[in-house]
């Protein structure tokens, strides 16, 4: 049974809203993930996609769209999907967008020379979560190795090894082809709901 004190539960509207943030370094494929999900879902499940302040293909503030997943115990279940801007100087925007997140997809760039950018951004994300009072160790995070079509590319596991973390759900993807994108969304949704049920 869901707790009435949960901030994303709205008894008046009879809906539960979860916030999923796609985090990761610049150009890793966060917006491409959202665009693919938005294209794939039928109208019944999705709201309009908002792509804010884009310059060429770089996100300057965030992308957003809502997904409706049906009804649980009379409550409509929704996911709000966001991306952050990956360029390093948008730290303040990243902090704002991460606030109130229920889970994160960390979109890593698999190109062989991107290990440092990935780990640097992952560390920034952990700091951000802590600054919002979130314990990153007990927080739903899915690590997506995107751009698996790169050559040469990072081996699976190197990011976790470099960061000294383990046990995180991992997916592989080629977001431009949609490969692995829906699987990643399913995994993070499952992690979030699992945690919500425990609360
Ligand atoms: N080869 C390849 N290119 C990809 C893949 N995913 C995304 N891209 C390309 O990478 C570039 C950046 O993708 P975006 O989705 O805009 O990246 P982003 O993470 O939103 O970037 P910022 O908004 O700057 O943080 C685009 O040209 C995409 O087409 C992939 O799996 N493989
Ligand atoms: Mg983007």
SSE order and pairing:
Blueprint lengths: L8 E2 L4 E9 L6 H11 L9 E2 L2 E2 L2 E2 L3 E10 L2 E9 L7 H8 L4 E7 L5 H17 L9 E6 L11 H6 L6 E3 L8 H18 L1
Parallel strand pairs: 2-7, 2-8, 8-9, 9-10
Antiparallel strand pairs: 1-2, 3-6, 4-5, 6-7
This protein binds guanosine-5'-triphosphate and magnesium ion.
Structural notes for this entry:
Residues 1-5 have low confidence and may be disordered. The longest helix is centred in the last third of the chain and has 18 residues, at 181-198. With 199 residues, the protein is of the alpha/beta class. It has five helices and ten strands; from the N terminus they run ββαβββββαβαβαβα. It has a single domain (14-198), classed as P-loop containing nucleotide triphosphate hydrolases (Rossmann fold), CATH 3.40.50.300. The strands form two sheets. Strands 1, 2, 3, 6, 7, 8, 9 and 10 form an eight-stranded mixed β-sheet that branches. It binds guanosine-5'-triphosphate and magnesium ion.
Describe the largest sheet. 8 strands, mixed
How many β-strands, per DSSP?
Answer: 10
Based on Cα principal axes, name the global outline: globular
Number of domains: 1
> What CATH architecture label applies?
3-Layer(aba) Sandwich
β-strand amount: 25-35%
Bound molecules: guanosine-5'-triphosphate, magnesium ion
- Could you list the spans in which at least 5 consecutive residues all have pLDDT below 50? 1-5
Radius of gyration from the alpha-carbon trace, in angstroms: 16 Å
CATH superfamily: P-loop containing nucleotide triphosphate hydrolases
């Amino acid at each position: 049974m869901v707790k009435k004190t949960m901030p994303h539960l709205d008894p008046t509207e009879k809906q539960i809203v979860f916030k999923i943030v796609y985090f990761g370094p610049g150009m890793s494929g966060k917006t491409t993930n959202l665009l693919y999900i938005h294209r794939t879902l039928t109208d019944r499940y999705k709201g309009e996609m908002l792509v804010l302040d884009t310059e060429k293909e770089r996100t300057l503030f965030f992308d957003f769209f809502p997904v409706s997943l049906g009804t649980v115990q009379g409550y409509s279940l929704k996911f709000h999907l966001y991306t952050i801007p990956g360029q390093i100087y948008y730290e303040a925007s990243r902090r704002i967008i991460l606030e109130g997140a229920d889970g994160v997809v960390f979109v890593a760039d698999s190109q062989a020379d991107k290990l440092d950018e990935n780990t640097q951004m992952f560390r920034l994300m952990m700091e951000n979560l802590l600054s919002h009072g979130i314990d990153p160790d007990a927080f739903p995070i899915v690590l997506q190795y995107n751009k698996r079509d790169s050559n040469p590319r990072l081996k699976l596991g190197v990011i976790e090894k470099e960061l000294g973390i383990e046990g995180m759900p991992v997916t592989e993807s080629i977001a431009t082809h949609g490969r692995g994108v829906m699987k990643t969304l399913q995994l993070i949704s499952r992690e979030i709901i699992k945690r919500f049920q425990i609360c």
